[in-house]
Fold:
Amino acid sequence: MKSAEEKNVGCELPEIGAITGIRGGHILWNYFESFLAPLGLSKKSVGVVTAEFAGKFSGRDVSVKLFHRRQSRYFGSRDHMSRFRIFQGLDLTVSIPVAVKTRAVIGTRVGGSGLLRKFLLWLAGRKGSHLVTCNHPLFRAMDVFAHDETWMNHFLVDPVTLDLLQDLMNETMLLVSWSVKFIPGKMIVNRRLSSLALTNAESMETQLNQIISLAEMAESKPVGKEIQLTEIERLQKKSPARAIALAGLRLLGLIVVSFILLIGIPFSLVLWFR
Structure:
């Protein structure tokens, strides 16, 4: 029987920005299954560009989701238009239930320094999260947001936490971006890979052990004020489709109200001053 490394031949990821086809995902999913299954994670769902594996690892529930990220581009004239898909990386997301009820994000800095970043900071503040200042060199190009700043500071100053984060980032040349996210009751580690060169049975087992250790470190730090899942998040656990529909209805309602305000207020002023 071929090893996982031998099966990897022929399913290498294209370069970021390269044109890719719509097929080939099953080769990637089979490759990951070859070393996730022995670790106790079985295939839960498979799509054209997505796959999910779930099970028990080191006594904890673990979910691994894969997303073959591509972006459509169009070339040619209006009469002779061709569509291509541009490879944007492979998202590898590991989720673990944790006994930590707070919200926080550690990840690659986004938004630059312009209006987009100001908007993101404003949006985070509206949701109750605050930008946490970290002077450690590890966070030079990172953003850290937390609902409970004290908890986050205790979490990040621990040398064990720093070592684990450093280990999860040590494939920098092969990572497009990465993040560690906490929502009430769950820790989510997302890594966008540009290559599978360092992804094999041994490295995956090591990374899962590191992620579980990171979860244990988070659980060892007491949260000052626990928060709960939102209504949509609770609904998403029971019925993802209904959660998406509810979020869509709320967004539609917000758009309608905004439109009414934008049109109604000026119209009312015109009538008032006639």
